[in-house]
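Changelog entry: the 3-hydroxyacyl-[acyl-carrier-protein] dehydratase FabZ record was regenerated in this release. Current contents:
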Amino acid sequence: MSEDAPKILGPLDVRRVMAALPHRYPLLLVDRVEELVVDERITAVKAVTINENFFQGHFPGRPIMPGVLIVEAMAQAAGVLAVESLGLAGSGKLVYFMTIDEVKFRTPVEPGVLLRLEVAFAQKRGSVCKFEGKAYIGDKLAAQANFTAMIADPPTD
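Regenerated structure tokens:
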């Protein structure tokens, strides 16, 4: 492998995901990383089960994953991509949303599916990163969004 070849990581289990993100149950929405190409893109998975606490109220009799949580799952995948690409896993740095643009929901996400999260860097400038994200059920596009995040230290007390 040449020095110019991209560094590819994966699969990464949930322990490695939790080393990159501060999120924990019930808000950790990335279960596994299938592939991470450093400085480029990530493919991650969220196993959507009927046991998710949000299905109790969204919606009784017709459980559908809230769109904002699909966007959050894409953002968490982006967080893993950014933290791993910048070598910040375990550093305590946080990835904060700055903007969310051009969000589109294409198909409902119901319990019993694997939600595939594909996120790529669109731009990196210092601690600010722009991403393009898509969420799929199989080959069917469920949602997409462009978003910007900032990597920063956590707030102090």
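The helical segments are 14-20, 67-85.
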